[in-house]
Design brief:
2 copies of one chain form a homodimer.
Chain A (H helix, E strand, L loop, with lengths): L2 E6 L3 H12 L4 E7 L5 H8 L3 E5 L7 H11 L5 E6 L5 H9 L3 E4 L4 H12 L13 H4 L5 H12 L3 H10 L5 H8 L3 H15 L4 H10 L7
Parallel strand pairs in A: 1-2, 1-3, 3-4, 4-5
The structure holds a DNA duplex (30 and 30 nucleotides).
Keywords (chains A, B): DNA-binding, Phosphoprotein, Transcription, Transcription regulation
Protein name (chains A, B): Response regulator
Pfam families (chains A, B): GerE, Response_reg
Chain lengths: ~220, ~220
DNA sequence: GATCTCCTCCCCCGTGCGGGGGAGGCGGGC
DNA sequence: GCCCGCCTCCCCCGCACGGGGGAGGAGATC
């Protein structure tokens, strides 16, 4: 059965765009739309979507409050994909802290949007592009350790994948990582691919950026 | 004429190793050795080396003080390559602040060592692997702007190269950077190569790491 | 026992990347 | 005038990278 999606955005144009992009996929179905956060909860109760694609900035009830309300009041809540215009939107942090599963830039390419929806539907987190660095701030001043663990959990990286990401963020090639971990390069490639997928990164460079931006690795 | 090098390290073994590596090159000549920073200044006056490869941790006079003294007292001072065991050596920052032109890990491969010597001899800076992030701290809290400019100057990146590095650090591919800057991909490749060379980075991933570690781009 | 996750390793394949060259135009400085 | 730094674009070439599959073993869970 297809992935069902509810669109929440105050701009009809954006909703139409998302609908067009998503419905072009045989395995994704847009089951409803809402123009404001206040309308979300009853709609979710009725339509039971797998994913809610929700704008952060909306009149009446914004994406953060709507996310919080959804998670608090709905049993078995849908996955929440926060939609935003700006990479460094203050609201995004709030939404992620409120429990959103990922976020999506409005200027992302169709393929990326589809990818993001599928990913969160499968239970993965989408932290890239990572304005999530401030996660670190939440976790006090004991450095990046707890923050790193938090990122690990949010992105659902396995321990091994976390090790690989850390080595990627030190500039090592797959072969060097393989030597360091005493495994085959094919194994490293597998882990790297998993890391890229979970972080929503296109290549190792973006993964390293995400590692820095999320506080998974800290400068210094 | 060859590049002349003066070796300064309290461990004879290290000096011998550097000598062996460097003298294997037809265009590099080791013209002298010293076991402590205190002996450096007269030797430099006498030998006029192009490059001084200097350990940071030495008895009597360490690499930081020796660097400072060299730059203060010698007219047309040599390029100074700081040699260190650890990537995150506190002393390294001091040496770079004191005016050293680059640093070198003792565990670097011979080819890298040779490369570093040639590079600083040519007047380039070698900031990678970048424990230079704390440059940012020197420049107050006005964010990364002045720090970025400082890194630009230290690494002698041109304005265009700085732009390219910034886009690399946002995860863009060469083609995307080319589109953004409205130039050909070949042009971008040229800039990228220049950035890699000047930062001493092996690939774009390492360049991005250097950008973060140096404070050239800031998380957030 | 069956199922699941994780780690490990293997295949094929296209391509973006980076190194090696060279070259022309343009501006500023000597 | 000349030279030099910078930006621009071009060639060839090897390889690491990343996507697409598949598969076996260890360990935990049910």
């Amino acid at each position: 059965m297809p992935v069902t999606v509810l669109l929440v955005d105050d701009e009809p144009l954006v909703r139409a765009g998302l609908r067009a992009v998503l419905e072009a996929q045989p395995d994704i179905e847009v089951v409803g739309e809402a123009a404001d956060g206040a309308a979300v909860i009853p709609l979710v109760r009725r339509l039971r979507p797998d994913v809610v694609a929700m704008d952060v900035r909306m009149p009446l009830l914004d994406g953060i409050e709507a996310t919080r309300a959804l998670l608090r009041t709905v049993g078995a809540p849908p996955k929440i994909l926060v939609v935003t215009t700006f990479e460094n939107d203050e609201y995004v942090y709030g939404a992620l802290r409120a429990g959103a599963d990922g976020f999506l830039l409005k200027r992302a390419r169709p393929a990326e949007i589809v990818h993001a929806v599928r990913l969160v539907a499968e239970g993965e987190s989408l932290l890239f592009p990572a304005s999530v660095r401030r996660l670190a701030a939440e976790y006090g001043d004991d450095g990046g350790n707890r923050a790193a663990r938090a990122v690990l959990e949010r992105a659902r990286l396995t321990e091994r994948e976390g090790e690989v990401l850390r080595l990627m963020a030190r500039g090592l090639t797959n072969a060097e990582i393989a030597a360091r971990l005493v495994v085959g390069t094919e194994t490293v490639k597998t882990h790297v691919s998993a890391v890229l997928a979970k972080l929503g990164a296109r290549d190792r460079t973006q993964a390293v950026i995400a590692a820095y931006e999320s506080g998974f690795v800290a400068p210094g």
